[in-house]
Write a structure and sequence with these properties.
Length: about 290
């Protein structure tokens, strides 16, 4: 009998490798410390501490948020993240066709929200590429990319989503500090370093396809390397992803949804966001501004 797909994917890390040891450590940390961090008590403590931090002036940055809303019941979490952005920041919601009307009812009384209908394929990546190709983000300096990740195949799926939401846009002061990074024109992508993967086993089954995509994007050889934010949630400068538009991808290029865990176009593109930035000499860094290679 064939092993479960997820076990096969994890097995590619090598059960005795350093990458697997780090993978296991992060799982345990998410289920213990992470669970406390995102608990109601943890959120209360963080907000209490935030009140005593010195407020910095709002960065001179045009910001927005884009989120793929597959699980409609998680909309309140997305709106909480949007509330940490500067007033008037637009929320772009990509929604599967069969959930559009319900989504529009949910945001009917919420200001500055645009709903974009898409076919349910390519997870969050295909709709995102659709908006990127359409020039939807061109007017912004910094955009936060989120999605309603549940990952039922992962033991820590719920906690990982909440952790990512918390560190990327959990409170206004933290969001302001991230946006201030984008006042430096060379900053291309900013993400949570704990989700940054650069060990070779994290190519999984996608390296050949990534290199094919990189060639189509006319990426210099030196920029084609592994280093990506697992889960595809991060802040980005739209200009840093311009190489992806050269691919001229449409929704039909993405595989139909079959609960795939690896080796799809959207898994390959997850590893191409940073490559696009590096190709045009943009910097990829952690939330503290430290360079990620």
């Amino acid at each position: 009998m064939a092993p479960p797909a997820r076990l096969t994917a994890i097995g590619r890390l090598g059960f005795r490798s350093r990458a697997y040891a780090l993978h296991l450590y992060q799982k345990i940390a998410a289920l213990t410390l992470g669970a406390v961090f995102v608990s109601p008590t943890g959120r209360y403590v963080r907000r209490w501490m935030a009140r005593y931090k010195r407020r910095r002036p709002n960065p001179n940055v045009r910001a927005a948020l884009v989120a793929h809303l597959y699980y409609l019941d998680l909309l309140p979490e997305i709106l909480e993240c949007r509330a940490t952005l500067p007033a008037g920041s637009i929320l772009h919601l990509t929604v599967p066709f069969d959930k559009v009307e319900q989504a529009r009812r949910l945001v009917r009384d919420v200001s500055d929200v645009l709903v974009h209908p898409f076919e349910n394929r390519g997870r969050d990546v295909a709709p995102f590429i659709g908006l990127l190709n359409a020039g939807t983000f061109d007017a912004y300096d910094a955009v936060l990319k989120l999605h309603t990740k549940r990952s039922p195949h992962l033991l820590d799926g719920e906690i990982r989503r909440k952790l990512l939401f918390s560190v990327l846009a959990g409170e206004r002061g933290a969001t302001s500090r991230i946006l201030s990074l984008f006042e430096t024109p060379s900053i291309g992508i900013v993400g949570w370093q704990a989700c940054y993967r650069e060990a070779a086993p994290y190519w999984m089954g996608n390296e050949a396809r990534v290199r094919t995509l990189a060639a189509l994007m006319e990426v210099p050889d030196g920029a084609v390397r592994l280093g990506f934010f697992e889960g595809s949630m991060f802040w980005f400068r739209p200009a840093a992803l311009s190489r992806l538009r050269r691919l001229q991808l449409s929704q039909e290029n993405f595989e139909p949804e079959m609960r795939q865990l690896d080796q799809t176009l959207h898994h390959a593109l997850e590893r191409c966001f940073t490559i696009s930035a590096w190709a045009d000499d943009y910097i990829v860094c952690g939330l503290d501004g430290r360079l990620l290679k």
